[in-house]
Acyl-CoA N-acyltransferase
Amino acid sequence: MALQPTLRAATPSDILDCAAIAHAAFAPSPIIRHIRPAAESVALGLWTAVVSAAFAQPHAHLVVAEDAASGELLGFAKWVWVEEGAVVPGIAASAAVGGDSGGDSEDERVGMEELWGMVGDREFAMEYFGAQAEQHERFMGRRAHWYLELISTKAEVKGRGTGRRLVQWGLERVDGDGAVAYLEASPQGRGLFERFGFEVVERLVYLDGAYVECPMVRAAKGKGE
């Protein structure tokens, strides 16, 4: 049965819950399994840095979906407005920002050199995230657009409408601005995005075909369409 979650802007108190959701959701990915740190705490720290970055990036919008009755956090999405001429954002850049600003004390902040030094395959990680950034700039150039940097839901609510609501939240703003939208889709998420009008513009094959990532673009619609 489809859920009707409540959506709201995230607060810093949601960071750890969002990081845990992303950590669990992406753990089965061949990419993540290949590059993730051996230590569970460090892997979670990377996701915490990525989520934390939303509160240091002026054009980032972190929205959470929660159960209306219990208040349980079910998922979240990070939408970023990229201004004309701006450098394109991405997960790796967010991790760098979040790693430097993700805590209130020196002990809580995790330096990115320390985090990247614990990644399972740093060379591949740099290649993968570098390719993401290159493809993003290749297809979007420096024109203004909305970017769905990250979306994640709990396993038990997948296919029940939470992800759809989080995508709709962003697309209301995309269409209100008459803007184009961009994202990178996993094999599991591609179908959802295609239903909202995103089109595959490239296929990036990794790990001898074990993982195929698809940059996707949604053309701008006139305001009110």
